[in-house]
Amino acid sequence: MTGETKAGPPAARKDDDNMGPMPRKAVLAMPEYHPPLAGRDALRLDFNENTFAPSPRVMDRIKAITAEGLTKYPERGPVEVAVAAHLGLQADQVLLTNGVDEAIHICCTTFLDAEDEALIWTPTFFMYDVNVGLMAPGGLRRVQSDESMEFPLERFLAAITPKTKLIMIASPNNPTGAVVPRQALLHIAAAAPDAVLFVDEAYFHFHGETTLSDVGTVPNLVVGRTFSKAYGLANLRIGMLAGDAELIAHMRKVCSPYNVNGVALDCLMAAMEDTEYLDWYVEQVRSGREKMAAGLDALGVAYFPSAANFLLIKIGPKHKELVEAMRRNGVLLRDRSTDPGCDGFVRITIGVAEQVETGLAALKASLEEIAWTR
Ligand SMILES: Cc1ncc(COP(=O)(O)O)c(C=O)c1O
């Protein structure tokens, strides 16, 4: 149990007018999300960030920021034009966001009325729960993976109803690393023409398959991308939405014109254009993922096949002890045991080669310390 998520306080509303302001009922009932951000001064194999650095060109841009520049409101438009051109899209098909977290928030606030349903595949990223709860309390429908953690296409299609207005699927998925093939996503989009299909491609670079090329031709498709993972800009908070121009126009109305800060906007194209650096980092992760998988095999630890920059591993009842032992050994892991169907599972991020080696050595030592057996 990580203690990072919990249901909101009891949905008791004070009826007495003099008892002070109260939030909406939906907010009272919303789950809270408190990721364990404290005390991360160790090898960070816990949050699936880039664990190394962004492109050196980003650091050059940061050094060039002036004091006067900081006094101005940020201008998102020209950067959207450049990002769209880089990705082969039109500018009106792109909306830059304050991370994919905000993209999820915008999708929910734009497309969900209180009586609507949203459909997700679980286990998955918890921010879908939080944001659907805000807009359509009681409207979240979950399709649980079986033990393989693979995408249950037939059951998922069967869960679509006339009330389904938003479908959110991460591919590769977090925390499992499982993918949903592009053809399956297109099938879902066609099966739910009155719903928006939000495909969360936060981990796209570590996999390679995308639905971005379907933006514009599939009218109800919206793709989310982050710059927090492969690009190494988690601290700058920048992500994007790409979709049909009309859908993006509705979402643009919902979001603040200043949602992305100017430092992030200044750095974004420097990061995107340094493809050599990006390719290097992605290759570090891909080869590191193989090395970690081989190391886990040698230790007799089971894990799920992953197309992302992490592996979900099966420890069993000693999951909490392992996370604590790893911390003592200087490496942070993320306990995923409270995720649906994940009891006894922990997740380890894949970084650059030396970090994978350090992570594996710490894992070996920690498993011995806690006298782990299969
Ligand atoms: C599937 C998924 N989507 C979105 C995010 C959040 O990305 P961002 O940092 O861009 O808000 C994460 C972060 O862990 C994630 O796992």
Question: Spans of 5+ residues with little confidence (pLDDT < 50)?
Answer: none
Total helical elements:
13
How far apart are the termini?
Answer: 20 Å
Helix content estimate:
25-40%
Strand content: 15-25%
Whole-angstrom Rg: 21 Å
Q: CATH homologous superfamily of the largest domain, by name?
A: Type I PLP-dependent aspartate aminotransferase-like (Major domain)
Task: Identify the overall geometry.
Answer: globular
The ligands found in this model are: pyridoxal-5'-phosphate
Instruction: Look at the structure and give the CATH class of the largest domain.
Output: Alpha Beta
User: Structural class, from secondary structure content?
Assistant: alpha/beta
Please give the CATH architecture of the largest domain: 3-Layer(aba) Sandwich
Structurally, the number of domains stands at: 2
Q: What's the multimeric state? A: single chain
CATH topology call of the largest domain: Aspartate Aminotransferase, domain 2
Number of strands: 15
The topology string of helices and strands comes to EHEEHHHEHEHEHEHEEEHHHEEHEEEH
Spatial sequence of strands, sheet with the most strands: 4-10-9-8-7-5-6
Q: Determine the mean pLDDT.
A: 95
Largest sheet: 7 strands, mixed
Description:
- By secondary structure, this protein is an alpha/beta fold.
- The chain folds into two domains: 36-52 and 276-369, Aspartate Aminotransferase, domain 1 (Alpha-Beta Complex), CATH 3.90.1150.10; 60-273, Aspartate Aminotransferase, domain 2 (3-Layer(aba) Sandwich), CATH 3.40.640.
- It has 13 helices and 15 strands.
- Helix 6 (127-135) links the parallel strand 5 and strand 6 (140-144).
- The radius of gyration is 21 Å and the shape is globular.
- Pyridoxal-5'-phosphate (PLP) is lined by residues 48, 99-101, 125, 170, 174, 200, 202, 226, 228, 234, 239.
